[in-house]
Design a protein that fits this description.
Elements: H1 5-19, E1 26-34, H2 46-58, E2 66-69, E3 76-84, E4 87-89, H3 92-110, E5 119-126, E6 132-140, H4 148-164
Antiparallel strand pairs: 1-3, 1-5, 2-3, 3-4, 5-6
């Protein structure tokens, strides 16, 4: 029985948690780089995925830090955030991969990839009760308006907000 994409997401996150070791200060999250309309998949954006594949190959020794998933509307990175005294910590390789994916989308367009939709960067998780939570980090319309340092700051702020977020309970 299929309960739609929230259930699929919950199952994907559970599988990730079973595969990857973590500590009590680690929180599994999904970082989704997607388009709201159109496609951001290998079949529609081969030039972008050539750049993404090259980055993934160069990161192969660090591939145990995250899981890379392909979806029709854009790639997803499953990773653990670490909560430290200084705030949220995320592997620098993951920031580098996110930057590569965003830049690859726009570079791929220059080389002939068809779709021109903006990119939306989202962080999401499943809480202890199995509820789906998400925060939109940013929307990027072109490479000219993109700043990797701003993305990193916004991602950390969104992650902190997401980890503090409570699911609103409705009383009957």
């Amino acid at each position: 029985m299929n309960f739609g994409w929230p259930k699929e997401f919950q199952n994907r996150m559970h599988k990730f948690q079973m595969m990857k070791k973590s500590s009590e200060n680690d929180f599994p999250v999904s970082i989704k780089i997607r388009v709201d309309h159109g496609c951001f998949h290998r079949s529609c954006c081969p030039n972008a995925y050539k750049l993404i594949d090259d980055k993934l190959k160069s990161m192969s020794k660090n591939y145990d830090e995250f899981v890379f998933e392909e979806h029709e509307i854009g790639p997803e990175i499953l990773v653990y955030l670490t909560l430290t005294a200084a705030g949220i910590s995320l592997a620098s390789n993951v920031f580098a991969l996110i930057n590569t994916i965003i830049k690859a989308r726009f570079e791929g367009q220059k080389k002939g990839d068809n779709h021109r939709d903006p990119i939306v960067l989202i962080i999401r998780r499943v809480d202890k009760k199995g509820k789906f939570l998400e925060e939109t980090i940013l929307k990027v319309n072109s490479l000219e308006e993109y700043s990797s340092s701003e993305m990193e700051l916004l991602l950390k702020k969104s992650a902190e907000k997401l980890l503090k977020k409570k699911v609103n309970k409705k009383r009957n």
